[in-house]
Automatic annotation (TrEMBL):
Residues 11-309 form the Enoyl reductase (ER) domain. CDD domains: MDR_like_2. It holds the Pfam family ADH_zinc_N_2. InterPro entries: ADH-like_N (IPR013154), ER (IPR020843), GroES-like_sf (IPR011032), NAD(P)-bd_dom_sf (IPR036291), Quin_OxRdtase/zeta-crystal_CS (IPR002364), YIM1/Zinc_Alcohol_DH_Fams (IPR050700). It comes from the Bacteria. This is NADPH:quinone reductase. The lineage of its organism: Bacteria, Bacillati, Bacillota, Bacilli, Bacillales. Keywords: Oxidoreductase. One of its GO terms (molecular function) is oxidoreductase activity.
Length: 312
């Protein structure tokens, strides 16, 4: 048996309870990872509240959490690229057996080797948010050197990785955030910082190639105004208005992450070379209290960088 933090019904953060769960058994294409750290993402509390039950119809109890960093302890019969003792990280499949647990089973094709110079905590922050940023900028928007890119909420989980990926690709990067985050966000390489409390981004910039929408609503609608014809608008919060996209001659789409170990390995290389760092604004213990506080903070939408849970 192993310790896990689970929910046994939908509801508020008080549904997070510690429970003894059966140790996972690997399928032939899976490994078992002894978890050292995980991180919090909005999907965690959205699923906990029941907002995603139409899409993800899981039986209870549900172990939340879909970021993993740890050490391989067992390997399925068909696994070829990983061995016991390997340091790894991953964005596992979205199943009811997530990563708020001492051990978890992960498909080989979703795993990446973790560079020796990167801590488990820093690694656990990356998979879901980092891969989302990469999918939006690289796969959807086909970012190129010299592109002008606006990243909304650059101080958030996805935003701060997006800034670094865009800079590594040679883009000019603007971001919106609050004044208190200005200094550390600029340290990631931002060219134009927009304090959203003092400036309306749609009035101070224009003719951009890409806008990464992490907020939705009015912000998404105004984002069409700052794009040039042929610009790209990936959103991670809601499907963009197709009529507006047509009017502005912009490619717009809603991106739901498709995890990939191969793409995560490309982020691992950036991490190893110092081109991608995790800003961990908050770290909590692997307890009921720790997870409840972490969910509370994530739900404010004002956490700095990433929220990490240290398991071992």
């Amino acid at each position: 048996m192993m310790k896990a933090i689970v929910i046994e019904q939908y509801g508020n953060k008080d549904q997070l309870i510690e429970k003894e769960m059966k140790y996972p058994v690997p399928k032939e294409n899976q490994v078992i990872v002894e978890m050292h750290a995980t991180s919090i993402n909005p999907i965690d509390w959205k699923l906990r509240e029941g907002y995603l039950k139409e899409m993800l119809d899981f039986d209870f109890p549900i172990i939340l959490g879909w970021d993993a960093a740890g050490v391989v302890t067992e390997v399925g019969a068909a696994v070829t690229n990983f061995s016991e003792g390997d340091r790894v990280f991953a964005r596992p499949e979205t199943t009811r057996f997530g990563t708020y647990a001492e051990y978890t089973a992960i498909d080989e094709h979703l795993l990446a080797h973790l560079p020796e110079n990167i801590s488990f905590e820093e690694a656990a922050a990356v998979p879901l948010a980092g891969l989302t940023a990469r999918q939006c900028l690289v796969d959807f928007a086909d970012i190129k050197a010299g592109d002008r890119v606006l990243i909304h909420a650059g101080s958030g989980g996805v935003g701060h990785y997006a800034i670094q990926i865009a800079k590594q690709k040679g883009a000019y990067v603007a971001t919106t955030a609050s004044g208190k985050n200005k200094e550390w966000v600029e340290n990631l390489g931002v060219d134009r910082f927009i304090n959203y409390k003092e400036e309306d981004f749609s009035e101070v910039i224009s003719d951009f190639d890409i806008v990464l929408d992490t907020i939705g609503g009015d912000v998404q609608e105004k984002s069409f105004k700052v794009l040039r014809e042929g610009g790209r608008l990936p959103s991670i919060v809601q499907p963009p208005d197709e009529k507006l996209a047509e009017e502005h001659e912009v490619k717009a789409g809603f991106e739901w992450l498709e995890p990939s170990g191969e793409k995560l390995s490309s982020l691992a290389k950036m991490m190893e070379e110092g081109e991608l760092t995790s800003v961990i604004g908050h770290q909590f213990d692997f307890t009921e209290k720790g997870l409840k506080e972490a969910h509370d903070l994530s739900e404010t939408h004002h956490a700095k960088g990433k929220i990490v849970i240290k398991i071992k």
